């Protein structure tokens, strides 16, 4: 940023608005965007190839026999999920962009509503989506919780003694764990995605306008998942049109969820609400499976990655889209998170 712009920001009566407008008026940094996307896809898809060549998601060998920890699980949680973060760092280093505007400052004092929304909304919306799914397809709802009973019986066989818990208490325990603990633990891995997608690529796309940037971001993020969707991640492979239809549905899911994650990042001025929220989504996503009977289409639900179960997410995304300025940097983000502080470059 040149001296004249710095002086202009320092003298502006509304520096937050000035910085946001300046960010929106700059042209797309096509070179850095292209390099970032190439690194992010290249690293992740190389890991996907390694997973495919070693048995895929289903037949992947255990790293430590008897633990259930497979090579695919490790590669997904590390090399694949952390590819966007590594791409972020590599792009900045290679292009000598500098390290300002990384969205790493928590900004909790001003951005706490977005932290709270990121933490709680996934559970609310995922449960609502499962309810919508079972209301439309009641034949797949099992109030007897046979799946949970089977889980308890397996635990009893392994331990050799009775497990003193009823099925509904198990559901409550699973939900509580998903809300209270999973966001933090999963955040160790979801940071790898969010530090790339929301903290780097989304701001780079903002010159297109917040809505267009969010749509393009969601489509890119969805396509990035395609190799593992093609191996059965999220949807399996036992549905008509596999894996291509699943790949398309995944783009829909990342579009609506990505709109929410982008909103809490930009308005909160920090990547951490999205990290926590992404971890919360991963933690609560499977809660609807505990209630199913029969074989419902995974493309529809009850997991939020299904079209029907994602309806609450879609409604929230529509609300965000309809709010003017919702997908632009908020007051807590406009200066610090974009590399400006009190009128000077930092």
Task: Give a written overview of the molecule.
A two-stranded antiparallel sheet has the order 1-2. 64% of the residues lie in helices and 1% in strands. The longest helix is centred in the middle third of the chain and has 29 residues, at 108-136. The protein is built from 15 helices and 2 strands. By secondary structure, it is mainly α. A hairpin with a 2-residue loop joins strand 1 (340-341) and strand 2.
Structure in a nutshell:
With 346 residues, the chain is an all-alpha fold. The chain has helices at 3-11, 15-25, 30-53, 71-80, 83-95, 108-136, 146-159, 167-180, 182-205, 210-224, 226-230, 244-268, 272-284, 311-322, 331-334; strands at 340-341, 344-345. Strands 1-2 form a two-stranded antiparallel ribbon.
